[in-house]
């Protein structure tokens, strides 16, 4: 290697936490020409002393909304990629509820190509299950898979029609890619803007019950049994859904679920505390503390194997409407790591290796990806994290166009301080490098 060449790095004395290989130890990591290298290959590298820092490969967020094409005023592939790099992620999966909906191979292809052109994060698109996400007719899943779709979802909406859901799950089995369901019975949830319970009653806001989610999860589990298909439950948030998931696992079905950081960290109390500010309005809604505890336990037990942000940026003018009229969603990429550290590490509920499984190996298994971990030849995709850094959330500082965060002003400990993608830093010292 040449000396000053930026294509060679030695990251010294870093705590390598590699869930892909189950390793947690202090080592030096070498990067040559975009790949992890053996020590011996690396002469004359740029050296980074990373004592006290953690290095984790391939942080993956399998549920983000980048709003591109069509709703770029909320977020586009560029600003979303910046938010991902700032948040420490090297892989994101984009949801297809754009305008137009991503339901044809050319749009999958376009998102991948544009993502590579930006070069800040691997963008793996999710295609729609139904044409236009209308729930009436199956989209061409096969062609979208050929174009690179890693899964299928009508997220933003539930797929209500049981016959179409059955067909989609049958396809998923053959294609080897999951059907990701936003589980919500639209009639039961109709009009609900927060969790139905004592707080919604006190505040006089229309609530949606837990069961609006769980009745559909139970149905989908039955359909996964019928078809042998691959079902992944998006943003799981209710006790009944956890029961259904547990039942599915005991039956040996190919069913998995993800939980969002906000459902692990916040409760419906936040709706009261924020005094009707729609910054807490999200779908599914923030739940009571008893449910939050159940979700945390489900993660610890290994029932839930993925944490995903459901990063849902919205424009300030939209979020500034009344609680009833504002759109659902939280901008979550840039607070993700700090939030799950608060929930699991500060409380001593999980060790780091286990926690990082949920944003590396967990999503990789659901999506059928094959990153091998930090072995020589693997793409140098990793994140350096300062586990001691304390910081205060300020949405106005986000790279995301969506400044909508109910964590505004919250103190977090632990922060990604550098992100490397294919051997190039995409973020260093909180600054995204384009
Ligand atoms: N989660 C949300 O509250 N909003 C998402 C839609 C979704 O994930 O269902 C969005 O697209 O804004
Ligand atoms: Zn959803
Ligand atoms: Zn979503």
**Whole-number total of structural domains:** 2
**By CATH's scheme, which homologous superfamily of the largest domain applies?**
Metal-dependent hydrolases
Overall pLDDT, averaged?
97
Enumerate how many helices there are, as a single number: 15
- List low-confidence stretches: 1-5
What is the name of the CATH topology of the largest domain?
A: TIM Barrel
Biggest sheet details? 9 strands, mixed
Q: Give the overall silhouette.
A: globular
CATH architecture of the largest domain: Alpha-Beta Barrel
Keywords: Hydrolase, Metal-binding, Pyrimidine biosynthesis, Zinc
Function: Catalyzes the reversible cyclization of carbamoyl aspartate to dihydroorotate.
Pfam families: DHOase (PF12890)
Cofactor: Zn(2+)
Question: How would you concisely characterize the structure shown here?
Answer:
With 434 residues, this protein is α/β, with parallel strands linked by helices.
Write the layout of secondary structure elements.
Elements (H helix, E strand, L loop, with lengths): L7 E11 L4 E10 L2 E3 L8 E4 L4 E4 L2 E5 L12 H10 L4 E4 L10 H14 L3 E6 L13 H7 L3 E3 L8 H14 L3 E3 L4 H4 L4 E2 L2 H6 L3 E2 L2 H17 L3 E3 L5 H12 L4 E5 L1 H5 L3 H5 L15 H13 L4 E2 L8 H4 L16 H10 L6 H6 L3 H7 L14 E11 L18 E11 L2 E5 L2 E2 L2
Helix pairs in contact: 2-3, 4-7, 7-8
N-carbamoyl-L-aspartate (NCD) binds next to loops.
Describe this structure as you would to a colleague.
The protein has 434 residues and is an alpha/beta fold. It has two domains: 8-55 and 376-432, Urease, subunit C, domain 1 (Roll); 57-367, Alpha-Beta Barrel (TIM Barrel), CATH 3.20.20. Helices cover 31% and strands 22% of the residues. The chain has 15 helices and 19 strands. Strands 1, 2, 3, 4, 5, 16, 17, 18 and 19 form a nine-stranded mixed beta sheet that branches. It has an eight-stranded parallel beta sheet with strand order 6-7-8-9-10-13-14-15, with helices on both faces. Strands 11-12 form a two-stranded parallel ribbon. The structure holds N-carbamoyl-L-aspartate (NCD) and zinc ion (2 copies).
